[in-house]
Amino acid sequence: MSENQEIKQGYYVGERSLFASSGLTIRDTIFGEGESPLKESRDIRLENTMFQWKYPLWYCSNISAKDCTWFEMARAGVWYTDHITVEDTTIEAPKNFRRSSYITLRHVFFPNAAETLWNCQEVEIEDVSARGDYFAMNSSHIRADGLRLSGNYSFDGCSDVTIENASLLSKDAFWNTKNVTVRNSLISGEYLGWNARDLVLEDCTIESLQGMCYIDRLIMRNCKLLNTTLAFEYSTVDADITTAVDSVINPSGGVIRAERIGELILEKDRIDPSKTKIICRN
Fold this sequence. Notes:
Layout: E1 5-8, E2 11-12, E3 22-27, E4 30-31, E5 42-47, E6 50-51, E7 57-58, E8 61-66, E9 69-70, E10 78-79, E11 82-91, E12 101-110, E13 121-131, E14 140-150, E15 159-164, E16 167-169, E17 178-183, E18 186-188, E19 197-202, E20 205-207, E21 216-225, E22 236-241, E23 245-249, E24 253-258, E25 261-265, E26 276-280
Parallel strand pairs: 1-3, 2-4, 3-5, 4-6, 5-8, 6-9, 7-10, 8-11, 9-11, 11-12, 12-13, 13-14, 14-15, 14-16, 15-17, 16-18, 17-19, 18-20, 19-21, 20-21, 21-22, 22-24, 23-25, 24-26
């Protein structure tokens, strides 16, 4: 295909139907059965276009997609691609966005987000809803505002992440992370943040069984802990909690401030209780 060409109401089937295209605007078009229709393409603008089969955008660069649809079989849709913006789009297919960089997702719905956003860098997320396990594994430099996620094991192994105004229903969220900050968000799920380093939670409401354990440098500012038990085990903590905490077990050190603590477990054969200061306002 030559550059600066417009395709409108196209229908393409077969493998690599528009392989290595450049400078195309594609509108009101359907890519039916056939793998890798736009593999190795660059400078592509997609509007109201549908992908119905596997691997549509691999090894691509400078892609814009607006009002588009990835159907369920368009799985593994965007791999090894850089500088891609997706807006006002439904992505039904799993395993999307892998080993890609400079990704912007704005007003996107992922009804099946299993294994999505793996090993990606420089990701901007705005007003995104997603359902699926293992979201954003091993990715870095993520900025998210208005993320609504339902799925376990999210953000495992991530680094340099800022999340604001989110709702995260996710068991084992933020495991093995570095430099993660979550603000003004709801987080509900067991075993929150294990093995993390430099995890900051500000103005958050949290519900978690055995949450915030095995963390090196946990900071909590103005947070609510609801139905949260056996918290802070083997963690170094600077926590300002505005509610009661149901139970705390064996923190490694730091300061915990709360309205009250229902049960405080300090086992001298496992930790040094003198390294943690407990302040209960009530």
